[in-house]
Design a protein that fits this description.
Elements lengths: L2 E2 L1 E4 L17 H14 L3 E4 L1 E2 L6 E2 L2 H14 L3 E4 L9 H11 L3 E5 L3 E2 L16 H8 L4 E2 L3 H14 L2 E6 L3 H11 L7 E7 L9 H15 L3 E7 L4 H10 L3 E4 L6 E3 L2 E2 L3 H14 L3 E2 L2 H8 L10
């Protein structure tokens, strides 16, 4: 493609406030981060909600509505809402944002996996909020549930709202799950896949694994899909650069990585957007605008959302 899509994942549900003073928490902070990321060149912003007082990941419907509305009023970026949520959230809580607000796009996790952050507890002694160590500790015994029943129900809600699923693929078997949904008519082409690498419980962030996933997707799903890569922590830019060279898209942002470089905290997801676009332009690649991204991903447009 002539253009590549940059997604900025603004806050996520992995990092806690103690880990970085720059993690956006409130609806106003998230809207401002979205504006900055858009001005830096991102076409898509990926959004989670957090309790404005404590920073704990939240599924509050009114809170999500406030965040979505404020971002829409601040910039023209495509908004990709999460249905991944945070540790301990029910399936109903996670999908509520699609049913209530009918976003243009939302994440749809393509299978279950162990998803753990507990080793962070070995590095941090003092936390800003009491919920943080408990939240991290529970992940040692946590399975991120995305069963075939869940996938069927989520896909139905997405279809009813004409919300584009961004399939989050953490491991190779999840491609079979997508193919199953496709064969059953639960989803339709073109498919959009986000390869998520480097999570403890999923595939490691290596070039070999990315090549394997991409080649497997072509064998299982055919060629009628577009794809992007995000990687946790220090491997973020290496894997995003590899994706660019392979013809894919990229996701950066404080959800995935709190740093701009070794030992240097990113003050905004926008700084990471600027960096990956600078790298891309060394390869004579240009970032897509939101309208170009809407065309590439076949989205319904901002006029059709419910916020």
């Amino acid at each position: 493609m002539d253009k590549f899509i940059v997604t900025a994942a603004l806050t996520g549900a992995i990092h806690t406030p103690t880990m970085s003073p720059y993690l956006p928490i409130t609806p106003d902070q998230l809207a401002e981060e979205a504006r900055r990321a858009r001005e830096a060149g991102a076409a898509v912003v990926h959004v989670h909600a957090r309790d404005p007082k404590t920073g704990r990941p939240s599924s509050g419907s009114d809170l999500f509505g406030e965040i979505l509305s404020k971002i829409k009023n601040k910039c023209d970026a495509v908004i990709c809402a999460t249905t991944g949520g945070g540790f301990g959230m029910s399936v109903e809580e996670r999908v509520r944002v699609v049913k209530t607000y009918s976003p243009e796009m939302a994440s749809l996790n393509a299978g279950s996996l162990n998803f753990s952050l507990h080793p962070v507890l070995e590095k941090i002694q003092d936390f800003k909020y009491d919920w943080e160590p408990q939240y991290l500790s529970m992940s040692e015994d946590f399975i991120f549930p995305n069963t075939f029943k869940t996938l069927r129900e989520f896909s139905s809600h997405f279809s009813q709202e004409d919300t584009k699923p961004e399939f989050e693929v953490y491991d190779a078997g999840m491609l079979n799950n997508i193919a199953f949904l496709l064969n059953r008519g639960s989803i339709k082409k073109p498919i959009y896949i986000q390869f998520v690498l480097g999570i403890l419980g999923g595939m490691q962030a290596t070039i070999g694994n990315l090549l394997f996933l991409h080649n497997s997707a072509r064998e299982i799903l055919g060629t009628d899909f577009v794809w992007s890569v995000c990687a946790a922590g220090k491997n973020q830019f290496k894997m995003c650069n590899a994706a660019l060279l392979m013809g894919g898209f990229t996701r950066v942002g404080l959800e995935d990585n709190l740093y701009l470089g070794k030992g240097k905290l990113a003050k905004s997801s926008a700084e990471q957007v600027e960096k990956i676009i600078r790298i891309a332009r060394e390869h004579d690649l240009e970032p897509a605008t939101p309208e170009e991204a809407r065309s590439i991903l076949n989205l319904k447009g901002p006029q059709a959302v419910k916020y």
